[in-house]
Amino acid sequence: TIEKPQNTLICDFGGGTLDITIMRLGEADKHRVLATGGLPVAGDVFDQKLTRTKLPAHFGEGSYYGPRHNAKPVPRWIYDEFSNWQTFIELQSQDNRRILNEIARSAQRRYQIEALISLVTSNYGLQMFDQVELAKRLLSEKRGAEIRLDGPDFKVREFVTRTEFERIIQVEIMAIEKELLRTLADSGLAAGDIDAVVRTGGSAQIPAFYELLCRHFGEEKVQSVDKFSSVTSGLGIYARQIEVGTADARAFT
């Protein structure tokens, strides 16, 4: 759709990674890549941090167990594993379930530890992460959202504001800004040399990320394309180019 050559910054910000490309487009149908960058930071990390901050208090974090004269805090590692969808399943191991049952027997807030055991053993983990992701997506449109989680022995209602969410992911946003500026420096261009900023992927809709791009490049330059299918569309175009011989790529089987 461009009518003259331009320098374009493309941000693909999805569920697992942020990928950045700075390209020179529109010169005799040639696309020149000037710089690339990226981070293993995206939606999954934000979901994990939101879960870790907002939900463990409903499942016993901060409480104690054991004899009253020698009570111990419920271990933090339980909630670190609880908050990550990749490690949540480890809480279902025989050893960890034994530890949780031992804690529950002398827990000051036994009902919360029993709720945690119920969440783990009844396979409600996936639903929990789905509800956290839903709340995160709603925060791109609204100023607040509620995380709702119902299951055997637990009923969670936890409200989170957009401001709170942005505070939770502040370290990641700062890392993204640093990587963005590093990639820009590698391209040899200044922010004013960028003609258009294209963002795609679900996480690219997060207001804090949009505001970051606007701050550096100007709101008038920041565009949004189909946030979920643009990558697969690009792969289809590239496959067609390989088929007709206008693009060259090594084939793997």
Write the layout of secondary structure elements.
Layout: E1 6-13, E2 18-27, E3 30-39, H1 43-54, E4 64-65, E5 72-73, H2 76-82, H3 94-105, H4 110-121, H5 125-138, E6 144-151, E7 154-161, H6 162-168, H7 170-187, E8 196-200, H8 207-217, E9 222-224, H9 230-244
Parallel strand pairs: 1-8, 8-9
Antiparallel strand pairs: 1-2, 2-3, 4-5, 6-7
Helix pairs in contact: 1-5, 3-4
Quick take:
This protein has 253 residues and is α/β, with parallel strands linked by helices. Helices cover 43% and strands 22% of the residues.
Q: Care to describe what's here?
A:
The chain is α/β, with parallel strands linked by helices and 253 residues long. It contains 9 helices and 9 strands. The protein has helices at residues 43-54, 76-82, 94-105, 110-121, 125-138, 162-168, 170-187, 207-217, 230-244; strands at residues 6-13, 18-27, 30-39, 64-65, 72-73, 144-151, 154-161, 196-200, 222-224. The strands form 3 sheets. The protein has a 5-stranded mixed beta sheet with strand order 3-2-1-8-9, with helices on one face. The chain has a two-stranded antiparallel ribbon with strand order 4-5. A hairpin with a 2-residue loop joins strand 2 (18-27) and strand 3 (30-39). The model has no long low-confidence stretch (mean pLDDT 93).
